[in-house]
C-alpha cells in the first residue's frame, strides 16, 4: 500500500546568507579589490553607453579592440552621427551582431541629440528609451558614469548570486531585486564590480576556483571544487 504523505512539513531554511554573512562576503571581496573598475574602455558617459551596448554577446576585450579607433574619432553623438551607419559598422565588424549594433548606435545618437541635447540622461527610464539600451546597460551606466548604487545583473553576477546564496533568484530581475534588498548601503556602489569580477575570474562557470576563493567559507555552494594540487592521498583514508 502506498504511504500516505505526511502532512507536517519541515520549515524550509532561508536560502539566503543573512545580513551578517552578506556583509562579510562584501567586505572580503572589497578587500581583494579596493578600487574596482569596469574593464570596458570609454572616454565619457556617451562612449560608455556605446561600449556597454556593444558588449552584449561580446567580450570586453573584443569591444575595447573595436572601439579604440572609433572613440578616438567619434566620442560625441554628433561625431558618431557624422560617421554614419557604414562608418560605425566598419569599426565594429569584429564583434557579434555588428550590423544591428551599428544601426542602434546611430539611432541612439539621433535620439540623444533630439531629446536630450546630446547629453546622456541620468535616469533608468530615460536611458532605456535609447535604442540598444536595456535595463542591464542602463544600470551599468548609472553606476559607472554617474555613481548611482545600481547593480546590473549579467551572467556572472547571476551565477555568483545563486551559487553563494547571496541573492538567489530564477531570473536576472529577481536576482537584481534581491541584491538591492540584501546589499548594505556601504557596498552598493561597488557591488556590481566586485560580483562581476569575482564571477569572471574566480567563480567561473564550469569549474569554479573554490580552493583559492576568498569567500569560500561563506559561500553556500555544495559542490565546491577541491584544490587540484592536493592529491587524493592527502585527503585521508576513505570510509
Ligand atoms: S567557493 Fe566556489 S562556488 Fe563559492 S563563490 Fe567561491 S568559487 Fe564560487
CATH T-level fold name of the largest domain: Endonuclease III, domain 1
Describe the global form: elongated
Unreliable parts = 1-11
Which hetero ligands occur in this complex?
Answer: iron/sulfur cluster
Number of domains: 2
CATH architecture field of the largest domain:
Orthogonal Bundle
Q: Measure the end-to-end span.
A: 36 Å
Q: Determine the mean pLDDT.
A: 90
Strand percent estimate: under 5%
Helix content: 40-55%
Rg from Cα: 22 Å
CATH homologous superfamily heading of the largest domain: Hypothetical protein, domain 2
Q: What's the CATH class label of the largest domain?
A: Mainly Alpha
Q: How many individual β-strands?
A: 0
The number of helical segments is: 10
Please tell me about this protein's structure:
This protein has 239 residues and is mainly α. The protein folds into two domains: 19-37 and 150-212, Helix-hairpin-Helix base-excision DNA repair enzymes (C-terminal) (Endonuclease Iii, domain 2, Orthogonal Bundle), CATH 1.10.1670.10; 45-146, Endonuclease III, domain 1, CATH 1.10.340. The protein is 53% helix and 0% strand. Helix 1 (19-32) crosses helix 10, helix 2 runs antiparallel to helix 7 and helix 8 packs across helix 10. The longest helix is centred in the middle third of the chain and has 19 residues, at 98-116. The chain is elongated and about 60 Å long. It starts with 18 loop residues before the first helix and ends in a 38-residue tail after the last helix. Bound molecules: iron/sulfur cluster.
Amino acid at each position: 500500500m502506498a504511504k500516505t504523505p505526511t502532512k507536517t512539513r519541515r520549515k524550509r531554511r532561508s536560502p539566503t546568507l543573512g545580513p551578517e554573512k552578506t556583509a562579510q562576503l562584501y567586505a572580503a571581496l572589497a578587500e581583494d579589490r579596493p578600487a574596482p573598475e569596469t574593464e570596458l574602455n570609454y572616454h565619457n558617459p556617451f562612449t560608455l553607453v556605446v561600449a556597454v551596448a556593444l558588449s552584449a554577446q561580446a567580450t570586453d576585450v573584443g569591444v575595447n579592440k573595436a572601439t579604440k579607433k572609433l572613440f578616438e574619432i567619434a566620442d560625441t553623438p554628433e561625431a558618431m552621427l557624422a560617421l554614419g551607419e557604414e562608418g560605425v559598422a566598419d569599426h565594429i565588424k569584429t564583434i557579434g551582431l555588428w550590423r544591428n549594433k551599428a544601426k542602434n548606435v546611430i539611432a541612439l545618437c539621433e535620439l540623444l541629440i533630439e531629446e536630450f541635447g546630446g547629453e546622456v540622461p541620468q535616469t533608468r527610464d530615460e536611458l532605456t528609451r535609447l535604442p540598444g539600451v536595456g535595463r542591464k546597460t542602463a544600470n551599468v551606466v548609472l553606476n559607472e558614469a554617474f555613481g548611482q548604487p545600481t547593480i546590473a545583473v549579467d551572467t556572472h553576477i547571476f551565477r555568483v548570486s545563486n551559487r553563494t546564496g547571496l541573492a538567489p533568484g530564477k531570473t536576472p530581475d529577481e536576482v537584481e531585486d534581491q541584491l538591492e534588498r540584501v546589499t548594505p548601503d556601504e557596498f552598493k556602489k561597488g557591488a556590481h564590480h566586485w560580483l562581476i569580477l569575482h564571477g569572471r575570474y574566480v567563480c567561473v562557470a564550469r569549474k569554479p576556483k573554490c580552493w583559492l576563493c576568498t569567500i569560500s567559507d561563506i559561500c553556500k555552494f555544495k559542490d565546491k571544487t577541491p584544490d587540484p594540487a592536493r592529491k587524493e592521498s592527502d585527503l585521508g583514508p576513505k570510509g
